[in-house]
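We modelled the chain as a single entity of 300 amino acids. Its sequence is:
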Amino acid sequence: MPVVDIPAGLRVVASRGQDWADWLDRLPRLTRELLDEWELRVDGTSAHGECALVVPVRTADGQSAVLKVQFPHWEAETEHLALRDWAGNGAVQLLRADPRRFALLLERLEPRDLTTVPVLDACELVGTAYQRLHVVAGPQYRTLSGELKRWLERFRKLPASAPVPHRYVEQAISLAEDFVSDPATDGRLIHTDLHYENMLAATREPWLVIDPKPLSGDPHYEVAPLIWNRWDELTGDLRFAVQQRFYTAIDAAGFDEERARRWVIIRQMLNVLWTLEDSDENLPQDWLTRNISIVKAIQE
């Protein structure tokens, strides 16, 4: 049986809870079984994401690929379906999948991502990619409106004393209520986490998208991660820098400005909501400030 290297950076996920620790215990054996069953040969050093082991491999016919084995969670349940729907058009090619074991065999891409590209050029590349990815979504995907209904209930439970400007909470609730009743909130296949590190250089095309967390949703929902990531690169006038990224992305995508802006506000406030729910007294103030700053800057 091949030796499977579990990176030290992935081992720390055991601290997230018993489910994570149990998965980590199973992971070496599960990966060896997949390598054996799919006739794969390890071809390099393993890497990892937030919740997945990625092993470079060679197939029986010598093709370079990667084996991705993920922690079981709902966002990963339909990743293989999204990759099949895209069929390599702007995204990494799916070669094989075992949804029961949350395992994917993918074409191998280069390790270089869009953080190596000037940020506005990267925003334009992502905005252009949207046009290829936002195909009609089938009924197999969860809907953005359904998720939004659940988020709305959590927003409403935030006390007025929460350490966040309550006017922005009320604004997010109002915008979310409008989107829940809007038929255009659902219907297109959206990635939901398309940021600079989820687009890699490739041979088949210059850049390809990876790691979808798919929903049936509104393409305008996609923009916000391009603003809150690479935050340390924003200099000078914050409002100008935020809006530069925003307009670069929506112009490349052909998005409606006001609709995209409303989704940015909701998504930044969702980041705030989840942070307040998940944190104890030691709140990450820099992160909260970042999200509130974007809400303010995007509508000045």
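As a brief sanity check on the tokenised model: The first helix runs from residue 8 to 11. The two ends are 60 Å apart (CA to CA).
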